[in-house]
Amino acid sequence: MRRRRPAPAPLPLRDGVDPVRVRLPAGEAEAPGTVRDHLLNRFPASAPELEELFACGGIVDDAGRPLSPGAPFRPGASVWYHRALPEEPELPGDLPVLFEDEWLLAVDKPHGLPTTPRGGFVAQSALVKLRRSRGEDRLSPLHRLDRGTAGVLLLSRDPATRGRFQSLFQARAVGKEYEAVAEHRPGLDLPRLVESRIVKDRTSLQAREVPGPVNARTVLEAAGPPFTDAEGTWARYAVRPETGRTHQIRVHLAGLGVPVRHDPLYPEVRPAGAEDPDRPLQLLARRIALVHPVTGVPLVLESRRALMTGDAA
């Protein structure tokens, strides 16, 4: 069954940033009387900002009509607004272009930069940086890389054909190969297929493996001899995820006893602020291969970045 295309936002982008959409829950036993009541109860820390937005007509419904503070709560509807941007530290912004045509843009994302706005990083995300630097409000990511992961990132330049590219990902017709530097475990049998069930919810920073039907598959191979430095002995791995669960590669490698070097989440969560930009997560989206759904031309897009492999020692 073809997925229904989401309705367009009733507010335009503002300086490369999408408006916030809040869906009003349906089926609540005691629904609040007004939209204002719901928003203030749900986002108490943003109360002054929300009150100001209501006062100036900055909160609108799905049709773009401004909502007054007394607008009734309508279960299942949505409201939209532009939030004030947080104060953000400057993150790496080097996003060299690997390929572009009128439908597709491929860039080489650096370590430490989120793909899309999230949490305290909005303007400091690959999507917003590219929209602003290129003057292209229609850019939209076709997949995501974790903030710590560097490498090939694909974005759609044309909303009319975005679905055709996304269909390739849904059909697993996009070949993805990663490189990882991780702990060396003598005797680890390679190559191997790692299969498990991975779940991730909002209550935890970590994804986890649980009993149940397999939903995550990763092929792991050696990518060179191990090397030793002042911190230990490390191995180089070529990793091909056959599925796309959250943190899949990091979870599977940690589960094998070979966590990715400098991983702030696996096997244990490091304290907030412990990340060192000079010691980035040693995971790289090295290569993406696909057949262009518009032109029919096979594409192999490869990152030009390198991991810490001891070769310069």
Characterization of the model:
The chain is an alpha+beta fold. The protein has 5 helices and 14 strands. It has helices at 35-42, 47-55, 126-134, 159-170, 248-255; strands spanning 20-23, 78-81, 97-100, 104-109, 140-141, 150-156, 175-183, 192-199, 208-210, 216-222, 227-229, 232-241, 283-291, 298-302. The longest helix is centred in the middle third of the chain and has 12 residues, at 159-170. The model has no long low-confidence stretch (mean pLDDT 92).
Please give the structural blueprint.
Layout: E1 20-23, H1 35-42, H2 47-55, E2 78-81, E3 97-100, E4 104-109, H3 126-134, E5 140-141, E6 150-156, H4 159-170, E7 175-183, E8 192-199, E9 208-210, E10 216-222, E11 227-229, E12 232-241, H5 248-255, E13 283-291, E14 298-302
Parallel strand pairs: 6-13
Antiparallel strand pairs: 1-2, 3-4, 4-6, 5-6, 7-12, 7-13, 8-9, 8-10, 10-12, 11-12, 13-14
Sequence of secondary-structure elements: EHHEEEHEEHEEEEEEHEE
Number of strands: 14
Q: For the terminal residues, how far apart are their CA atoms?
A: 54 Å
Radius of gyration: 22 Å
How helical, in percent, are the residues? 10-25%
Helix-strand makeup class: alpha+beta
What's the overall geometry?
A: globular
Q: Helical region count?
A: 5
Question: Sheet with the most strands?
Answer: 12 strands, mixed
> Residue ranges: pLDDT <50 for 5 or more in a row?
none
Question: What average pLDDT do the residues reach?
Answer: 92
β-sheet strand percentage: 25-35%
